[in-house]
Amino acid sequence: MRQKRANPAGEVGGVPADEEVALLSRVAAEEKDAFEALYRLYNPRLQRFVHGVTKQPALVEEILDDTMMVVWRKAYTFNQSSKVSTWILAIAYRQSLKALKRLGQRQDAEFCEREDLAVPGPDDALQQQEVHEHLEHALDKLSPEQRAVMELTYYFGYACREIAEIMGCPVDTVKTRMFYARRKLRSSLAAQREAI
C-alpha cells in the first residue's frame, strides 16, 4: 500500500474543505448536480477504502452505492462537527461492516505498517512485487477493523482522533487495533520469510 498523507488544509481531490461543506449543503437541499459532483469527488477514495476494509472486490460498488445513498438521504444531518470526509468515510465504514456481516465475515478488533518501496532498477521489480504480494497476503489475515485503521492511517493520513470518529470507537481502541495489527503483520511476514 502506498503511503499518502491527507492534505493538511483538509482538501479532497483539490477541493477545499469549505467548498465540500457547501457542496454537501447543496446535497442536503436535494440538488442532484451537487450530489453527482460529490459522488465523482469521493468515488476513487471510497473505492480504495471499501476495498481495503472488505477485501471483497465484488462488494465494492454495492457498498459504495449504499454509502452514497445514505449521504443523499442524511446530508441534512451533517453538523460540521467533523470534516465532510470524516463523515462520509464513517458511513462507508459502517456500510462495509454491514456487508461483511451479511456475508458472515469475521469482525473482531486489531492493524499494520506499510512502507513505500523505491524501485531503483528493473532487477528489483520482481522483488518488490513479491514483497507486495506477501504484504497483501498478511493484510488479508487482519480483521476488517484492523485493515480500516491501517488504510485510514497509512493511505489517507488520518490521525487517531479522526479514525476514532470514523469508526465510532474510542481513540484507545484505534491504538489497540493498530498495535495488534502491526504485531500480526510482523508475525505473518516473518513466517512468510521463513517459508521461502
UniProtKB/TrEMBL annotation:
Coiled coil ranges: none
RNA polymerase sigma factor 70 region 4 type domain ranges (all copies): 135-185
Any matching Pfam family: Sigma70_r2
This protein's name: RNA polymerase sigma factor
SUPFAM superfamilies given in the database record: Sigma2 domain of RNA polymerase sigma factors, Sigma3 and sigma4 domains of RNA polymerase sigma factors
Source organism, top-level taxon: Bacteria
Record keywords: Sigma factor, Transcription, Transcription regulation
CDD domains linked: Sigma70_r4
Stretches assigned to the RNA polymerase sigma-70 region domain: 38-103
Source species of the chain: Dyella flagellata
